[in-house]
Every structure is written in C-alpha cells, then in structure tokens.
Amino acid sequence: MMRKPSRRALARPKTVRLDLVPILASVFIFIFFLLMSANFIKIFEIPSDVPLFSQATHDNKEKSLGLTIRISDNDIQILTGIPASVVKTVRKLNPNDYDLNTLHQTLLDLKKRYPKENVAILEPLNDISYDKLVQIMDEIRLLKHTDPELEEKTRVLFGDIVFGNI
Hints:
With about 170 residues, the chain is of the alpha/beta class. It has helices spanning about 5-10, 20-35, 100-115, 130-140; strands at about 70, 75-80, 85-90, 120-125, 160-165. β2 and β3 (about 85-90) form a beta hairpin.
C-alpha cells in the first residue's frame, strides 16, 4: 500500500537548476568570433641610438662629417663639422610639405664626399608631426633606386640616426 504524501512534502518547492551549458557555449562562440574579427596591427620600430659624448681627442687625419639636421617649422638646416656650420637650408615647398628631394640630393652629395660616414644627428626644434618626422628620417636613411651608385656598396645613406635634443 502506498502512503499519501504529507503536507510538508507537498509544500516543499521544487528546486530548479539553471542550465549553464547554452550560456557558456554562446560565450565561447562570441570569443571565437571576436578573435577572428579583430584587426591585428603591426607596430614598426625605427631604431635610434642615444647620442654619445666623448672628451677624447681623435688622432684620425680624416675630418669627421658631424652631420646635424635641424628641423623647424619653416625649413630644414643641414649642418656639418664641429662646431657646426650651415651647409644648406631646405625651405618648404608649401605650408605643409618640406622639399624632401632637395634634402635627399644634398645628403647624397655629402655621402659621396664622406663615404664612410653613417651617423646623422636629428634635431627637431619644434613639435613636428610623426608622419613628417618619419618622412624626413626615410630621406636621411634610405637610398632610392634612382640614386647613382656610391663608391662603397651600401644600401643606406646615413643609417644611424641619433636624436640630439631629446
């Protein structure tokens, strides 16, 4: 014979368990689609050394170029020697763009006279946009395929750029 359930057993509410499997499945799918749709960017680094100052005298008979490039709002000055003297001032073509072809040609002429020199000191005097600074650095560092060949077989113009006024 079966017993009739007591009132206590009838009054006890049934416990309802949440089914977390569909929620977890949707979270994992969401993470998968998030990773697949993310744009991964490449960060490029332009190497630059810290300027070194030395009190030692050089017994080298060859004169050092001591190339310094000062960038201001209106022009780019190319200086050589110690103490520095202005070799050329490259003006802007228009209010937004520097005359990078003249800069590159002047640096190419300097490289022909000093083929072993590889260091250029860059001194941006004012706030210059990152894009302009990179364009100027590219003109200083890279040889173009239209440039005449130099005495020393090299792929760079002045490859070691040092910031002089950080």
